[in-house]
Write a structure and sequence with these properties.
The chain is built from 28 helices and 34 strands. With 846 residues, the protein is of the alpha+beta class. Strands 8, 9, 10, 11, 12, 13 and 18 form a seven-stranded mixed sheet that branches. Strands 2-1-26-27 form a four-stranded parallel sheet, with helices on one face. It has a four-stranded antiparallel sheet with strand order 6-5-7-19. The longest helix has 21 residues. The radius of gyration is 35 Å and the shape is globular. The structure holds ligand ANZ. The site of ligand ANZ has 18 residues, from β9 and β13.
Length: 846
Amino acid sequence: DEVYDFASIQKKWLPVWDEMKPFRSGDPDDKRPRKYVLDMFPYPSGDLHMGHAEVYALGDVVARYWRQQGFNVMHPIGWDSFGLPAENAAIKRGIDPRGWTYDNIAQQKASMRLYATSFDWERELHTSDPEYYKWNQWLFLQLYKKGLAYRKDSWVNWDPVDLTVLANEQVLPDGTSERSGAVVVKKKLTQWYFRITDYADRLLDDLNQLEGSWPSKVLNMQRNWIGRSIGADVEFEIEGREERVTVFTTRPDTLWGATFMVVAPDSDLAAELVEGSTPEIQERFGTYLTAVQKSTEMERQATDREKTGVFLGRYAVNPVNGEKLPIWAADYVLADYGHGAVMAVPAHDQRDLDFARAFDLPVRVVVDVNAPVTGVIPVIDIDEHGDPVLPDMESTDPAETGIALAGEGRLMNSGPLTGLSKSNAIKKVIEILAAEGRGRAAKNYRLRDWLISRQRYWGTPIPIIHGADGTEVPVPEDQLPVLLPDAEGLDLKPKGTSPLGAAEDWVNVPNPIDGTPARRDADTMDTFVDSSWYFLRFLNPNDDTKAFDPREAERWAPVDQYVGGVEHAILHLLYARFITKVLFDLGHLSFTEPFSALLNQGMVILDGSKMSKSKGNIVYFTEEVEKHGVDAVRLTMAFAGPPEDDIDWNDVSPVGSSKFLARAWRVAKDVSSSPDVLWKNGDPGLRRVTHRFLADAPGLVESFKFNVVVARLMELVNATRKVIDSGAGPADAAVREAAEVTAMALNLFAPYTAEDMWEKLGYQPGVALVQWRKADPNLLIAESVTAVVQVDGKVRDKLTVSPNISADELEALARASAGVQRSVGEREIVNVIVRAPKVVSIATKG
Ligand code: ANZ
């Protein structure tokens, strides 16, 4: 007797599909409507892992579903194959990053094909191919022409022993390098940036369009990352200096409460102000700056940090009342936010208050937080004399309590603002400042420009040539790609400058303008550039005349469903959104958001923790697939729970999945061994289960309740088995129908088993292209009840209705009933009482 054997089924169908190519999406004559389903492409760091097994199983449910709903589905895949791991592996083992990368791709690709994800392999791409990165360079040049790509000096963490740039995470809490143990210093490097901050408002505002189709968690992470603050720029005169200093504040209403000014110690402004001071102050400042440069931005922003700072010996003048404000340098003010300077209002800002208390600076309250903004004094209680008890007005002095009064209230001690609410005071003070040319409404963002240059080898060379005179010359577009030179002979170890700088033959070129000696830019691009537009390259990956075809983009894009991990919730998605808007502005695209809908899957974990080599708790993809079969692993991923939840591999049962698949498969086998359909009408109970499934599954898939669909399929298989074993047997028409629906639906989760069942049921291969059957509405009434209809107390009709019928529907049926109409005749209906689904009582008069 033939038994379910996943290994032989896999071996049987894979070559058949290779031949059939059922997932090609590029036929220009294909008249089906289109859907673009995209899974985040993998980084080829080794073989596939269980995280890949999850994302590609879930994304494939969606792709396969839309195909069965009549769509031409584009479901492409490629490799995000530039980046640091390849380079590090190459350094460690003395091999070529290219070879390492492409070996891994070959391995992942073999695993992915076995995994039977319904990819259109004709669209495969690798970002490390010159055919791809040529267009990264083209993109760079488009941004450069628009002034959106530029170079500037920026501070980096520098290891003075290893001569390398360090990431923030590589600087230990004591300020030493994780690599060499040396004290880390800050060093200025010239780096390339993309001006994403120009798009801050649009990147923020357009998130509203995605409400409901992206997870709200991701929308909020994006909002916080962009971090728009609304307030004002206020200009302060500085004693002994021509130019004013501008500060950004979200609370211009508190201007009368400013008692000092603070500037970022590492700003140019601080350096300039201190120059006009005494040598002692200069020395104190120098020592302080050295200490500050060892701390990270995170540490500097921590609110519980002890406040430190140095008085610069200089004074600012408050524009509204002429008061002299001492200027301090303190590290809680950041050089690259706002203007790197703040007006300190200790009574109403906690960090300013902590600082004022540490250095004995005055605190002046200018907002009466006990004065209700609404004009009604809140009564807390009534005392024994019947008088209202008002809120406690004592001990709110921030200088005493150490707690800044950040709440709302009415302005006090503030000249023309006194008595106003916060929002009115803000309006008024901006008017006053604007009239005098000393300030204006202003916005600020947390978002920083995107640093895209890397001093590493394995990436896209930046297509710029530097003339001997310091000019920047873009490589002419017809000379792209600027090919990455061979790694052979290059020292890839990080040293703060790009290894490409040492490739003499490559780096020295004639200036395209006048032929004089010039040098190529030796930096490579952040790999987030590669992934910021890859969804467009899939449209025509082999076109060597353009990055993408706008007409194809019109047909397919934006992506209808994007699927991937929440670890990309911020940067990757933000960059892709930014580049899409840039391409829209340049006239290459007609839409401004790349991904219409987003599904984030959780992680695959073990015993409650993330899998990692160091913890030794890795479950290997290949082992699981060998043990349980592809279909069982895929089904387990879909059945585990809501996709966004983590899957603990110890809490799920691929063995159980495999048993279920065998059960489903045996149904088809039983049907196939019983070719004559004997009872034509079929078991009505089973037919109802089948059609209820057909009706419900689409909505469940579209709302990503894959686990519920699987549970319902299990119910269907059980019901089928019951009829086979006890009723009319496999010759029942309802059994065949249920088996066919099971095979059709299993295609979403377990394509090999589904295809094998489909064959057993007598069909040609290609269950993935079989259209989803329509449910018969007559079979959707699960059971029926009898509703009694009375007219003036006498039963006039009995209706057979669904137990879930609504009152309105039941009333309409009752009014339409022939018995009721005969009995009512010409009389007027004055009252109808409906108790769905059992009784309708009609009262008449006349
Ligand atoms: C006066 C003031 C009074 C402020 C008050 C707040 C409350 P967000 O929301 O983060 O934008 N600030 C401005 N530039 C800064 C910098 N470079 N480093 C550190 N802090 C800076 O906060 C804006 C507020 O943070 C600004 O408003 C300023 O303090 C401070 F009752 O100005 B505020």
